[in-house]
Every structure is written in structure tokens, then in C-alpha cells.
Amino acid sequence: MKIIIDAMGGDNAPAEILRGAADAVAELGVEILAVGDQKVILACAAEHNIPLQGIQILQASQAIEMCEEPAKAVRTKKDSSLVVGLKALAEGQGDAFVSAGSTGALHVGTSLIVRTIKGVKRPALGTIIPGGEKPYLLLDCGANVECRAPMLNTFGVMGSVYMNKVMGVESPAVALVNNGAEETKGTPLYKEAHQLLKANPAIRFVGNIEPRDVPSGQADVVVCDGFTGNVILKLTEGLAKTLMGQLKPIFTKNLATKLAFLTVKDGMKAFKKKMDADEYGGAPLLGASRPVIKAHGSSNAKAFKNAIRQAMRCAEMDLSGTMERSLAALAAQSEE
Amino acid sequence: MKIIIDAMGGDNAPAEILRGAADAVAELGVEILAVGDQKVILACAAEHNIPLQGIQILQASQAIEMCEEPAKAVRTKKDSSLVVGLKALAEGQGDAFVSAGSTGALHVGTSLIVRTIKGVKRPALGTIIPGGEKPYLLLDCGANVECRAPMLNTFGVMGSVYMNKVMGVESPAVALVNNGAEETKGTPLYKEAHQLLKANPAIRFVGNIEPRDVPSGQADVVVCDGFTGNVILKLTEGLAKTLMGQLKPIFTKNLATKLAFLTVKDGMKAFKKKMDADEYGGAPLLGASRPVIKAHGSSNAKAFKNAIRQAMRCAEMDLSGTMERSLAALAAQSEE
Question: Residues of A numbered 199-258 whose beta carbons fall under 8 angstroms of chain B's beta carbons: which are they?
Fold first, then answer.
């Protein structure tokens, strides 16, 4: 198994990316093809004492910045680590690609270079979010801000295959975000999507899920358009941060509260770990013809290593192939 | 000042509604016109020892249930507390109307019976949500699941007037929910709305707000379509509940953690109060020609009393008139 990584993408590149890759080699027994400027990579590894055993370097002289217009960046920066890495994946030089760089550029680049499986026009961005009962997969998280109903139906299939194959959930419960439980709720897009999902034999559709029930994790796959998914993902992050920020002054008020905190420290630590998205690696670009994983832009070594683990699992389970077969069966059925 | 209330609406009607009304009479010096079945109201007041001084009863023999189809319920239940109450408001029998009943029926009924101010087709549902820094007004929260860009622009004006007049915020910051700070972000609806809000001289538009920044309260007015607003409102509720539920077992684990909790109890209580939406009363139906307030369906006496206080303030500050003048000035300007 060989995973291709974008050594230059992300806020903490290349040091944390390389460290995560080195940890993956040591702990997971994987080979790495690190794409980036060889000189920079070697200097960084030397400076931070990161062992490069098992890590091969594929030269790319450019890097795509977060602020660049995605389509333009992919078109013009032919020698960027992201474009060179995706090309290497398309050519079969590795089994999956992981990048903590620009989501937009990765999405555009994946569509153009790696291509999508049959039945999928543009990949969807899925994210595993820690929930009250259990983690759930939210898609689309912002790759496709405008969606048509058949796309939402496809998201249901792709999400279901992902949760089954990669997360090991048997018969995942697929739910559609909506402003009410009744199937007549929502915009025309959501009404139509509900009917398509309901009639879809490839998934276990459990109906609409109201936004208040999303965080509990009662559904395994939560389907919505990319605009709404982006709201859910970012609001979840922001609200968790705001609430935790409100708790801090309560515990640091005086000596007694500080001592009190020591008592619950272990519990709080376990809670933080459970709520820590880094534990689940990155966001898969579902529908790509080969596995592409978007690691969080602020990934540290641990998060990047987990994203590599996730990429390995996607490749092992032949995620793209399984999805393609599911969608083909569905298309054949609806043509009958 | 006389506030008309729907005595039969809400999960805890009529007891908690009447208790809230009686507290409002005692504490706020307001007159109440309670709409509902006189027999039921008198029996309930007697059973729960609720004083009816200052509370006049307006007979209505029916009640609209939460599960009823809103438009049909308003059309067919002519003698429901909601319809009779809204008619009383339209006829000037009181200065504002407060109901904890069906949001949909209240929205439809307000449009049909109380009517909207010039320039507003259907009222928007605004909700004050506790934020990290300060509370903010979110609109639309679900009354209009489908919106056009000029509606979002009107929401900006109505929200700004509300925060200024009712919440006392000078020059409120108005922001548009979007999946990025750049004005080119979002769906066509959001791109167009951004341009309209930016060119709107009646408000202080501060640009797009990413969902992760919404909970901090850095904007006073957060504008979005009703589908998205419903997601933000309900997800905020659900996530706060999930996170607090995760903290509980940490504090109830053993004797030491229980003792620790005693130390931080006051702080947690203050925090809970700050995060308690009940403190802010109900959700105004902005754009109605007279003030209509939707109290939370699960309102207890305190929440309902606060909703009455809010209704009083809307009437005192001539909210509807001020909004109408702002919108008229805006319309005149754009015609020039």
C-alpha cells in the first residue's frame, strides 16, 4: 500500500505533514510518496529530526495557497504539489491521495485530474463529525453549494457505502436534513430529494432529520446540499468553541474552582478526545475514481497520520469501486 | 398598554400561560386580554391559584393543535384562540399579540388577518439567540423556507430596526450567513443578496459571516433564508443540549466530582442563565403591521412573561411603524 501525500498543503506544512507521514510509516506499515519541493522537504526533515525511511519524494516546485482561486490555481500551477500529486494518483503511482491544502483546489483538481466514478459529476465532501451517541458522516460539506435532487440521492448512496466500508457500520441509517419530520417539509429541492431517497433500494433511508437531532448522531449518514452542510459543519465547530470558551472562566475563577477542575480533568480530557475531529482523520472526496482525502487545514501530525490511516482503509476496501457498482445497480434499476 | 395573549397555545397552556400573564400584570403593570375558552380558563386559574386581576377574557371555543396544517387550520377554525386573538389585534383591541401555539398557523394567520407593512409580503420569524459576546437576532428562522434576494435585504432592515428599537443596540451590525467571507461566495441567491445588502443605506452591513462565527455574537443581526435559519436555530439548540449532556456524567461520576461540581455550581448556573433563550422572550414576526410575538412552544410562565415584556417594548417603540418608514425610505431611494 502506497499513499501519496501533499507535503506542501496546510497551515503546518511541511513539518507536521512529514511528521504525520513518518508516524504512519512507523505505526501503520505504509509506504509514502511525498509530493513537494525536495530541497524544502529534506531541510525540514533534517531540522525537525523527522526520519524519511519509507518516504519517497516526488518533485513539485510550486504550492497552491489557501487564498488562490481554485480553478485558476489548478489550471496554472501545473507543477504544484497538489496537481502533481493528483496526477500521480491518476497514473496509479499510489493507492490514495491526502492533502491538507485548499479544499476548493483539491475538489476542482480531483474532478479534472482523477475524474469521478460513473454517475457522479462532481465529488462530494464528506466529514465525520463526533456526535452524542456516535460519529456521523455529513455530506456534502461545501464542495457543491448548489445541488439538484438526484445529487442528494447519490450522496445518500456514497455516504452509506463509506460508513459501511470505511467505518464498519452495518446497514447505515441515512437521513435527509430538513426543517421538519414530515416528507412535505422543506424547499422543492428537499421535497424531491426525500422522494428519491425514500424510493432508493440501495440505502436504509430513515426519513428527514431535524437539525436539532443531527448532533446526537442518531443517523449515520446526514445528507444535505453543500451550502447547508457547510453551515452545519462550521456552526458545529463554532458553537463547540463558544460553549467551551464560556466554561473556562468558571473553572479558572479561584483556587477552589481550579482544584475542582483537577477532579474532573480526566473526564474532561476523555470528553475532549471524543469531540476531537482530529481523531477521525480527514474529509473524503466521495465519488472520486480513486480515494482522495482532504485533511483539515490546521492538521497536526496526529490528524494527518489519521487521515493517512483513513486513506489506507478507503483503498483497502475498494471504496470507489464499491460506490461505482452501487450506483450502477441503482441506475439499472431505475431504468427498468 | 394592553397585550392580547393566546391562552390555549403551547405545550403548557393554559396554566403556565396564565401564570406568566398574571406575573406580567403584577411586575410590568400591563393589561392582558386572554383569548380562549372562558370556562377552561376560569377552572385552570382556580385550580392553580392564579389571580386574574388585570386579565380580561375574550371567548374563543376552539384551539389550533401543533400538528394541524397551518393554512387549513386558520381557514377552518374561525373560533380558535389564535384566529380570534389576531382579529382582536387587527381591530385594535390590544397593542400586540403573543402566542406559544403553532408557528406555522401564527405566521399564516398574521399574514391574512393582521396583514404586513408595505414592502413585506410575508413576515419573517426572528429569534434572539444567546451568543458568546452578546445575543444576536437570527432571521428568517423558518417562516419563509424559500426566499428571493430582495427578501433577504428586507430582513436586514427589519432586523436592524428590531435590534435598535427593542434591544437598544445602536447602529446594529448586520451580516449575511455565507460559506466564506468573500462576496463571490455562496449560491446565486446569496451572491445577489450580498450586493443588495451592501448597497443598502438603511443598515450597517458588515459583510458575510461564516457559520463558525455566528455563535460568538459578533454580528447583531444575522440574515439568511428560512431553511438555513431553521438549521442554525435548531442545530444551536441540539448541539448545546448534546454538549451539556456529555458533561453531566463527568460531574456525577463519583463523590469527589460531585463535590467539585458544588464549587463551580454558581458559575454554571450563571452560564446556564446566559445561554437560556427563555430570558429573551419569544420570536417576533417581523414585518407584521402590528406586533406579533411567537413564544416558544414549551414556554413556562417565566418565558411567557418575558415574551409579554418584549411585546410591550415592540408596541412602545412603534416597531411596525418604524420598519414601514425605513422600508419606504429605502424604496424611494432605489426608485430615484
Answer: 210-216, 226-228, 230-243, 245-247, 249-251, 253, 256-257
**CA B136, CA B263: separation in Å to the nearest integer?**
31
Q: How far apart are CA B278 and CA B263, in angstroms?
A: 26
- Give the ipTM of the model, two decimals please: 0.86
What is the H or E stretch that residue A34 is in?
A: strand A31-36
Q: Which of B176, B250, B274 to mutate to test the interface with A (most CBs of A within 10 A)?
A: B250
Distance between CA atoms of residues B28 and B25, nearest Å? 6
User: Is residue A88's pLDDT more than 70?
Assistant: yes
pLDDT-derived band at B95 (thresholds 50, 70, 90) equals: very high
Q: What would the grid cell of residue A36 be?
A: 513537494
Residues in chain B: 336
**CB-based contacts of B231: which residues, under 8 Å, 6+ apart?**
A177, A179, A211, A228, A231, A232, A235
The torsion angles phi and psi of A259, rounded to 5 degrees, stand at: -65, -40
Q: Which of A77-86, A321-330, B157-166 has the lowest mean pLDDT?
A: A321-330
Q: What is the mean pLDDT of residues B122-137?
A: 89
Q: Is B297 on the interface with A (CB under 8 A)?
A: no
The pLDDT, as a whole number, for residue B92 is: 97
% of chain B at pLDDT higher than 70:
95
| pTM of the model as a whole | 0.88
CA A227, A148, A320: angle at the middle one, nearest 5? 85
Cα dihedral A227→A147→A173→A129 (10° resolution): -30
CB atoms within 10 A of CB B187: 17
3-class state of residue B137 by DSSP: strand
